[in-house]
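Worked example 2:
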Amino acid sequence: MTSTPKDQAGSDQTKLNPGDQAEPGTPGAGENVCPECKGSGRIGVTPCPICGGTGTIIEGIGGA
């Protein structure tokens, strides 16, 4: 039997990008435009390294 590391993305897990602070659907987190590529998903001709080419990141939303 082969096991995979817990932090390795499997087919049933969402891949987190470097700019993500939480998994999608996490309470207190929401989708926002990537600050690096401004939502385009690209830096020049390459995919944005922060959002992974999606143009969005998942981050904590404000509260007092």
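The mean pLDDT is 82. The radius of gyration is 14 Å.
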